[in-house]
Amino acid sequence: MTLTVDETAGTPMPGLLSREDFRAALEDAIKGREAKNASFSQAWADGTLTREHFSRWAENHYHYVGPFADYLGYIYGNTPDHCTDAKDFTLQNMYEEELADIRHTDLLIRFGEACGTSKERIENPDNMNAVTRGLQSWCYAVAMREHFVVATAALVVGLESQVPGIYRKQIVPLRETYGFTEDEIEFFDLHITSDEVHGERGYQIVLDHADTPELQQRCLQFVRWGAEMRFSYTRALYDTYVAPSL
């Protein structure tokens, strides 16, 4: 790997990574920061949560994933017209969130109601904690302000690509330990499939369009930050709602 000099900082910067090395670096940027390993996810998988805990999760998760089409809308607007593959993917992702057979947030609300909370409580932003509010704000800021490929790296690779691994670990206890019906947990089943496709397409867009050393390194930094944000959000759910009840 060659090094170039960052003239603004006066420090060596890695040269342009090959497609294979860049893909490996993106995957490494998530390792050790996966939300599936955070304390709330572990308690979920171990079968130690209650429906009240899941209610608080739904009330927070709505305000993270509910605006996802909005985040993508800003990325779409920042994507040059000639990057048709990236624009098409972002538009399709927005469509699936909002206009497909059923809105993803409606499925989330259905799960929350099965846990004992209400649509009104889930939609009320007063019911999310400060860390969830910070994650939502970070997603908006990245989508609005960053180069489209950096924002795609942050939100699709760093955040969305983790979802299948998280939900595969969680859906089994939802069925076998917590006793939810298939209809009640459709939100999770849908995202195991759809976000696996979204995550891989996000990787391909980043690999195709991060075509300078500077863009590659910024993508890697934002993937790390995205993974850290989701891990912190998931851990805060445990610290806020589970730990005090133990």
What does this structure look like?
This protein is mainly α. Helices cover 70% and strands 3% of the residues. The protein has 12 helices and 2 strands; from the N terminus they run ββαααααααααααα. The protein has helices at residues 19-30, 39-46, 51-65, 68-78, 84-98, 104-115, 119-123, 130-145, 148-157, 163-176, 186-209, 213-242; strands at 3-6, 11-14. The protein has a two-stranded antiparallel sheet with strand order 1-2. The termini are far apart.
The string of secondary-structure elements, in order, is: EEHHHHHHHHHHHH
* Total number of helices: 12
Strand order of the largest sheet: 1-2
The rounded distance between the terminal residues' Cα atoms is: 51 Å
State the total count of DSSP E strands: 2
**Which radius of gyration do the C-alpha atoms yield?**
19 Å
